[in-house]
């Protein structure tokens, strides 16, 4: 079994014991350390939480991780899913919105719970979620990012990346690829292929995408989503070339802006993408650069006497000052990137698409 560092153990302890997961199984979007308050429960973040604890359980065999993952997945099936309208709303309780991106993350979390032996109910729920994505959002050019509930009308696009269609949506479409692998349903695979074609066509224009440097940093995060969604196709030479170029584009912008504003998830997603690219034989790893990125990621792990903070990863820094968000998604990306870096250094790196958070 791969080595687990104290850093990753502390991150896992924060996920389980900080209170970021509600008693009902749902997970807050973040903890505000300045306000000493959790944000609302996010169904998307709960999906990430399931995938993260599944990853930790597979590495450690610690039953507490498995039980936490299944509790969160149970919340998604029994509480988050809107049975009347067959969709996963944005937040719990529902706030009248649903995001295409969130639905894909939730479906992948449910598949992770099913692979843990949680039962066929999780696979059934994942299939329902995947079909709802097809019916409500479609799989093609300009997939709408947000619809209103209960009428399911497309919201007008707004000038921010999460409220516009874009190549980043390929990460959500990865749910269709995973469903095709789990069920053999070719409709799901075709939906992924359609999304891939349109993502490849729009990726070049996504960066920098804004004149403001802090907004460019924000856009590096979803661009890394595009690279993650590209992984099932990187055996194709054209996709491999796009992947390699994408790594360089992210790194260039990151180095340019990091002294002013930097996000922990961008460091983590970039390192993770480098390690996947290396393992898949399409992007040779620069060990010195990867080691620097791993060191930077580790600096975002928080130390505190407060269990609501200690072991979690901060969202980011502006002008060297830590922002007051202890973030479960950032924690997930950071701990997985550092775990894969440990695997690489130990000669054990064998990442799978299904295990990618």
Describe the structure.
The structure is a single chain. This protein has a single domain (6-346), classed as Alpha/alpha barrel (Glycosyltransferase), CATH 1.50.10.10. Helix 1 runs antiparallel to helix 12 (328-346) and helix 10 (264-279) packs antiparallel against helix 11 (287-298). Helix content is 55%, strand content 7%. The chain is globular and about 50 Å long. It has 12 helices and 10 strands. It has 357 residues and is mostly helical. The mean pLDDT is 97. A hairpin with a 4-residue loop joins strand 1 and strand 2 (37-38).
Question: Which tags fit this structure?
Answer:
mainly alpha; Glycosyltransferase; 357 residues; 10 strands; 12 helices; three-stranded antiparallel beta sheet; single chain
In short:
This protein is mostly helical and 357 residues long.
Number of domains: 1
As a percent range, the share of helical residues equals 55-70%
* Strand coverage percent: 5-15%
Order of helices and strands: HEEEHHEEHHEHHHHEHHEEEH
Number of beta strands: 10
- The CATH topology annotation reads as Glycosyltransferase
- What is the CA-CA span between the terminal residues? 19 Å
- Anisotropy-based shape: globular
Q: In CATH's first tier, which class applies? A: Mainly Alpha
Low-confidence stretches: none
Quaternary arrangement of the chains shown? Answer: single chain
CATH architecture: Alpha/alpha barrel
Biggest sheet, spatial arrangement of strands: 2-1-10
Q: Helix count, per DSSP?
A: 12
Give the biggest beta sheet: 3 strands, antiparallel
Radius of gyration: 19 Å
Query: If you average the pLDDT, what whole number results?
Result: 97
